[in-house]
Amino acid sequence: MFKKILLVDDDQLVLNSTRRYLQEHGFNVAAADNGAEAVVRARESIPDLVITDAEMKGLDGFTLCRAIKETEGFSKVPVIIISGRKISEQDILAGYNKGADDYILKPFSFPVLLAKVKAVMKRYEAFQGQTGKITRLGMVVDPSDRTVTVGGRIVSLTRKEFDLLTALVTGGSRLLSIAYLLETVWGYDPASYNDPHTVGVHVSSLRKKLGPEIGGHITSVTGHGYKFD
If residue 148 lies in a helix (H) or strand (E), which one and from where to where? Predict the structure, then answer.
């Protein structure tokens, strides 16, 4: 069965050329040139992935991402944000907090976009396959509905934070390398991207949200990786 992609961009040239490329590579693509239309199309048929431009008039890509994630039945749909300007670290973290799964800058090559699409889908399907609840030290991680509770308290995590925590707790007490986490959680090719700061920022946020009793069990070996012990 063809995977369904919802493609959103107010630049008709980019929209049409990207749609053709993705269709030629086996995807069923629905296109919208604004955020409001994208919401309608998504409700007509739930997509397997959304690719949206960040800078659109009206409902921009970040607001669209949040709207999708907060709509019942859509919270598990991955979203890739496309931006025509350089994105700051603050923008990236804000996007992750709204549920974005990955970013790509314009102008981009179609092969790079295709690689990101496949990586995000592969990562999403891998985490979807984990359905049993994971209990560690009074913390319950439920992959089926992507929730985390500590002592009965729901802990609000971004998608990346949840995926990172899931990778750590399912890794037992093994040290997970930075390269492994970047590839598993973010879908990055370790040969081309291996910045430990990306993982470190999310680990710091996780520790803070989980609290010292749980977060303190996420330990690091400087320059090598992290583990949950």
Answer: strand 147-150
